[in-house]
Specification:
- The protein is built from five helices and five strands, in the order E-H-E-H-E-H-E-H-E-H.
- It has helices at 17-29, 55-65, 83-89, 116-127, 147-171; strands at residues 3-9, 35-41, 69-75, 101-108, 137-140.
- Helix 1 (17-29) crosses helix 5 (147-171).
- It is globular, with a radius of gyration of 16 Å.
């Protein structure tokens, strides 16, 4: 089975550590070669993000809305996600991410804002209709030395959540 996966990185610096965390998380969750992955590094679209209308941004928004899984990743700025990521998400109408499985990810200097992805980004993704399969994932800079283990543990938890939802879905009656 092929999966369409997108990573949206809200770091204003291209090719950031935040992006690295998001890419590793996807690789751990879906280690298969049967993944159509696109990384949308919003730093590459700064000139377009506030252009209305924008064919480029509409194409990116459509890609994300059509994905099976999306990781939305941002460094922690002022205890929340970046304005760059917010501007991207503001382009969606109500329920614009309906049915998309979305994992919110934040990176930060320390654990002071560890609830950030759960407290700030998850509600926005849910408001847009996305399915958030557990609490958000937060990575502090002190964890970068053992990032593989940290991301592996998070991926295992998300995989378990997916299995439990799939089991429940297999027993429900179709409407």
């Amino acid at each position: 089975m092929s999966f369409t996966v997108s990573i949206v990185v809200g770091n204003p610096k291209p090719h950031s550590r935040t992006r690295k965390v998001a890419e590793l998380l996807v690789a751990k969750i879906l280690p298969s070669d049967d993944v159509d992955l696109q990384v949308i590094d919003l730093a590459d679209y700064v000139q377009e993000i506030f252009a209305w209308p924008s064919e480029t941004m509409s194409t990116l928004n459509d890609r994300v809305a059509g994905s099976d899984l999306v990781v939305f990743a941002s460094p922690t700025y002022k205890a929340t996600y970046t304005g760059l990521l917010k501007a991207f998400l503001d382009r969606y109408p109500a329920n614009g991410l309906s049915g998309v499985v979305a994992i919110p990810v934040h990176t930060g200097a320390d654990f002071t804002h560890a609830m950030g992805p759960t407290f700030t980004l998850s509600p926005l993704l849910s408001e847009l209709g996305a399915i958030v399969p557990g609490r958000g994932f937060y990575v502090a800079l002190s964890e970068l030395d053992h990032l593989d283990d940290v991301v592996g543990a998070a991926a295992a938890q998300y995989a378990e959540n997916f299995r439990r939802v799939a089991a429940l879905a297999s027993t429900t009656v179709e409407a």
